[in-house]
Amino acid sequence: MNITILAIESSCDDTSAAVIQNGVVLSNSIANQSVHEEYGGVVPELASRSHQQNIVPVIEKALKQAGVTKQEISAVAFTRGPGLLGSLLVGTSFAKGFALAHGCKLIEVNHLHAHVLASFIQTPQEKVPEPTFPFLCLLVSGGHTQIIVAQSFTNMEIIGTTIDDAAGEAFDKCAKVLGLPYPGGPHIDRHAQLGNPKAFSFNKPHISGLDYSFSGLKTSVLYFLRDALRTNPQFIEHHIDDICATLQKTIVDILLDKLHKAVQQTGIKQIVIGGGVAANSGLRNAIADYGVQHTCATYIPELRYTTDNAAMIAVTAYHKYLAQDFATQDISPRARYSLQEYFGR
Questions:
Q1: Sign of CA dihedral 220, 221, 225, 226
Q2: Of 88, 90, 135, 215, which one's alpha carbon is 20 to 30 angstroms from that of 207?
Q3: 188 and 286 belong to one structural domain
Q4: What is the rounded CA–CA span in Å between residue 170 and residue 176?
Q5: Can you list the alpha helix ranges (DSSP code H) found in the chain?
Q6: Is the domain of 237 the same as that of 317?
Q7: How far is it, in rounded angstroms, from Cα 168 to Cα 9?
Q8: 111 and 251: one domain?
Q9: Which strands sit side by side in the sheet containing 24-31, from one edge to the other?
Q10: Which residues have a Cβ under 8 Å from the Cβ of 344 and sit 6 or more positions away?
Q11: Residues 288 and 143 in one domain
């Protein structure tokens, strides 16, 4: 009997639905929200309203692309958290209603857990290499920067995390200071590819252990620009490529330094990256180079699976289905939902 799961992702501003059958993702439909660009960031109320408008057509499209009917669905999965509560509520409510209406199982998924497993996404068109357990995952997103040891699909432990801002926040907030459009990360990446990463110097934090910190870096960039603009009001305009290249290299160096320490401490040489910042070309290249230099196997998800998507929710839900880990109808979304709590620690 086929295991066919409909997965829904609605943690922030992208509405996504995917269908997975026996571990193979048959469809992955995404509706983006451009309304937030003029505000320089996601507006929660606008995001939740857009999810309400998008969720039905996105799910219909995912089912149609997969060639699957609603009656064939074995379970419906949804992102329970972390994320924007209003956005999560839309996906959670739809999933609960769908499960009731069609008599199928209900599966809750932690958004971060799904990012870790994004490298396991398989499609009918292509079979990609998968990491083996245990592996280290560098999870880098707008709100989280963590080093995770994955012992199995359903057993993971955080061994390093940020004590203040996440790497994605550093990218976006520095981009805002530079006058770049939202979201700032991709614009920094684009400029960085044209600049000299050694043109300037920004402070790097000195945090013990495997934890991260990015608040000092943001302050360093802010003061650097303040002083430079005093003598040359067009400094940013004239040096935008070099500023972005230096900033990007600094963030990547910070990330790789702690990851290297984790490899040394654990002896694990299987490395995975996940999260929205995993789309950054500087980080992707650095991870690949690190693997070659230190004889580590590295796994980097396709670009389309680094940002929020339901395919990663589907893969995670499939393995939870195999473990018979189902949710009940009294479940509610969680804006803050740590991996420790999710895994019952």
A1: negative
A2: 135
A3: yes
A4: 10
A5: 44-66, 85-102, 111-116, 167-177, 184-192, 215-231, 235-266, 281-293, 310-322, 339-342
A6: no
A7: 20
A8: no
A9: 24-31, 15-21, 4-9, 75-81, 105-110
A10: none
A11: yes
User: What is the domain range of residue 100?
Assistant: 4-127+307-342
Tokens 């609603």 belong to which residue?
A: 70
pTM, two decimals, is: 0.94
Tens-digit pLDDT profile for the chain (345 aa)? 899 999 999 998 889 999 999 999 999 999 875 554 555 666 777 888 888 999 999 999 999 999 999 999 999 999 999 999 999 999 999 999 999 999 999 999 999 999 999 999 999 998 899 999 999 999 998 789 999 999 999 999 999 999 999 999 999 999 999 999 888 899 999 999 999 999 999 999 889 999 999 999 999 999 999 999 999 999 999 999 999 999 999 999 999 999 999 999 999 999 999 999 999 999 999 999 999 999 999 999 999 999 999 999 999 999 999 999 999 999 999 999 999 999 976
- Beta-bridged to residue 107, according to DSSP, are 77
Are 19 and 143 within one domain?
no
- CA separation for the pair 149, 138 (Å, rounded): 9
d(CA 210, CA 325): 31
Find the CATH number of the domain harbouring 50: 3.30.420.40
273 membership: H or E segment, kind and range: strand 270-274
Instruction: Read off the DSSP letter of residue 181.
Output: P
CB 176 within 8 A of CB 247: no
Measured between its terminal Cα atoms, the distance across the chain in Å is 34
Tell me how many domains the chain contains: 2
Distances (CA, A) of 337 to 82, 106, 108, 299, 319: 5, 18, 12, 26, 20
Residues 76 and 104 sit within 8 Å (Cβ to Cβ): yes
Contact between residue 11 and residue 79 where contact means Cβ atoms under 8 Å apart: yes
Tokens of 140: 């880098």
- Do residues 243 and 232 touch, judged by C-beta distance below 8 A? no
